[in-house]
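Trying the structure run again after the queue cleared.
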Amino acid sequence: MSIPFPVHIPLVEHLGLRLERFADGEAELSLTLDPDVHTNSFKVAHGGLLMMMLDVAMAHAARSRNKDAPDGGPGIVTIEMKTSFMRPGQGTLRAVGTVMHATAKMAFCEGRVLDEAGQICAHATGTFKFLRALPVSGRATQALSRVPLQGDGSD
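Done. Tokens:
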């Protein structure tokens, strides 16, 4: 049974990723591949999709450390990521992210995408930075797009 994502990420929602676990420096996502949307010319998971799943799983693992903060904690951005592909992704995939080390401003994570048989399709390590707002063009900043908490009076 999936749980709601803590922040609004349009691409993640559009592609149909589901958040399955989000706690204690770990996060798990799942996705059932749609051959008309998620695959490459070999009819297996596109590498860019696997990288996005790894990125989102690791970032949510890092974000989970602050999930009980009154405001949900800071936002998070990817600083760098290294990915290795081991085998084609097919069927329903799981991406698992884990925090290896974190400071007040940075999180160092690893992630893996597994197929239905539990075999690893891709592995990544990534560095993430916690931010309260994201600097965009000029001197402006862009606030984090949060999902309203149920019963917080924002409906």
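The two ends are 24 Å apart (CA to CA). Worth checking whether this holds up in the mutant runs.
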